[in-house]
Design a protein that fits this description.
Cyclic Phosphodiesterase, Chain: A; alpha+beta; 4 helices; about 170 residues; 4-stranded antiparallel beta sheet; about 25% helix
Length: about 170
């Protein structure tokens, strides 16, 4: 039976998407071209192919229960020393992200997380310490607000994450 790796995320709209993508490339992140800027709702998860209709139905149900909300990205944070990551912080919309993440990771997608959920947008990962420091300092002034009107289902194929389907909020 075919298995696939999926993830669920809030995409970042333009022009902020390109700005964050460019930053990730500038800091030498090895995954910069494979992973679009996003706020994770479901980390990489293996799913049996026959389960995908159930997963998609679950995601439609979650999206149908939600309303659009504002997401404010501002400043930087890091997971160091636990993980070599620098990210742009979610300053507003945290509780919305947490609620949606709980719903997405429920039902047929129930799974344990390695770390507690913390919404963020990665700008540097698995790079030298001086590049992490530079990303932390240079992205500290990043500040934008946009409306989140849904989330996306992604599939990982050959180490590249590709969007499969959009799930607009209908609540």
């Amino acid at each position: 039976m075919a298995r696939q790796t999926i993830g669920v995320a809030i995409g970042i709209p333009e022009p902020f998407k390109s700005q964050l993508q460019d930053a990730r490339e500038r800091y030498g992140d090895p995954n910069s071209s494979d992973i679009p800027p996003h706020v994770t709702l479901l980390p990489p998860t293996m799913v049996e192919g026959l389960q995908m209709p159930i997963v998609e139905q679950h995601l439609r149900k979650v999206a149908a229960s939600r309303r659009p909300f504002l997401l404010h990205l501002r400043g930087t944070g890091t997971f160091r020393p636990v993980s070599p990551v620098v990210y742009v912080t979610v300053a507003e919309g945290v509780s919305d992200c947490e609620e949606i993440e709980r719903q997405v990771r429920g039902g047929p997608m129930r799974r344990q997380l390695k770390f507690p959920y913390h919404p963020h947008v990665t700008v540097a990962h698995d790079v030298r310490a001086e590049l992490l420091d530079r990303a932390f300092a240079e992205m500290a002034d990043f500040d934008t607000v946009f409306e989140v009107a849904g989330f996306q289902l992604f599939e990982k194929t050959q180490d590249v994450w590709r969007p499969m389907e959009e799930y607009p909020f209908n609540g």
